[in-house]
């Protein structure tokens, strides 16, 4: 088991265009280049004469651990058959995962009826997990890949519990672009004092014990990713 330290640990997030440094008590890692570190800094590099530095602080709470074996971090990515989920996996592989890390592919399914509980595995789910596992191994040769499949109601709470159970350092989810009507309805509900209605992704960001990042690809013309964390929504990272 890793020793407790008063100083915040670090985790690799090598960005090709943006450099992110995160203050997080749930991350511990050996020193190396292109790290997430204390007093997180995001640097956008576009036109050299107009390069701008943005200072942000990402709040992440959780238990202090080193990913289980002290050799690397555990990163959990929620797997679905959507472009957003695949984009989140691509982002995690290119921006966070190192060869000594372990990536956990989590798939959450609705509970099956009793009469169908003894049926064979869903071939579509198995094919999806197999495909994404291959993607991980091809893009990050040597990385350890684990698959976790769970069933149940309340997808958000299931994801949060799974992240806690596996003691992951980082949870990554794909995020869909919300329609203008959806955003207006959410604001209306919030003004009336109701639940925030943020959905599964927002629930995980607010309740997970580890750092949680929602990822959505920016448009093809602009490029990069929109990143949402506990304290920042749709933060644009060029990549």
TrEMBL record:
It comes from the Eukaryota. Gene3D superfamilies: HUPs. Residues 74-216 form the UspA domain. CDD domains: USP_At3g01520-like. InterPro entries: Rossmann-like_a/b/a_fold (IPR014729), UspA (IPR006016). This is UspA domain-containing protein. It comes from Gossypium hirsutum. The gene is LOC107941255.
């Amino acid at each position: 088991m890793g020793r407790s330290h008063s100083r915040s640990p670090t985790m690799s997030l090598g960005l090709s265009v943006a450099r992110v440094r995160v203050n997080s008590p749930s991350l511990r890692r050996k020193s190396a280049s292109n790290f997430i570190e204390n007093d997180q800094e995001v640097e956008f590099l576009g036109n050299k004469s107009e390069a701008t530095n943005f200072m942000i602080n990402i709040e992440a709470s959780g238990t202090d651990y080193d990913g289980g074996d002290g050799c690397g971090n555990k990163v959990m990515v929620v797997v679905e058959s959507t472009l957003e989920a695949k984009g989140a996996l691509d982002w995690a592989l290119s921006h966070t995962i190192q060869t000594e890390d372990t990536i956990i592919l989590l798939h959450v399914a609705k509970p099956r009826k009793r009469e169908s509980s003894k049926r064979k595995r869903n071939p579509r789910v198995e094919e999806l997990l197999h495909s994404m596992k291959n993607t991980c191994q091809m893009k990050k040769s040597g990385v350890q890949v684990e698959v976790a499949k769970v069933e149940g109601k309340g997808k958000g709470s299931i994801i949060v519990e799974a992240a806690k159970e596996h003691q992951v350092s980082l949870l990554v989810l794909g995020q869909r672009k919300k329609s203008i009507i959806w955003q207006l309805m959410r604001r209306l509900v919030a003004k009336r004092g109701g639940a925030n209605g943020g959905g599964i992704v927002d629930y995980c960001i607010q309740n997970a014990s580890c750092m949680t990042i929602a990822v959505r690809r920016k448009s093809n013309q602009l490029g990069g990713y929109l990143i949402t964390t506990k304290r920042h929504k749709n933060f644009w990272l060029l990549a």
